Amino acid sequence: MKNRKTYARKLTKEMLIKSGIELITEDGAVFRNGKQVIPTQNKKNGYLMLSIYELDEDGNKIKIQMTRTFKGRKKPSNTYIYKVRTVGLHRAMWAWHYGVVEEGYVVDHKNNKHTNIEDYNINNLQILSQRENSIKDCKASIKEIKCRLDKPISYYEDKLAYYEDLCKKATKNGDKKEIHKQGNNIYYQRAKIRYWLSHKAEAWVSQ
Question: How big is the CA angle at 32 (ends 98 and 61), to the nearest 5 degrees?
Answer without folding.
Answer: 80
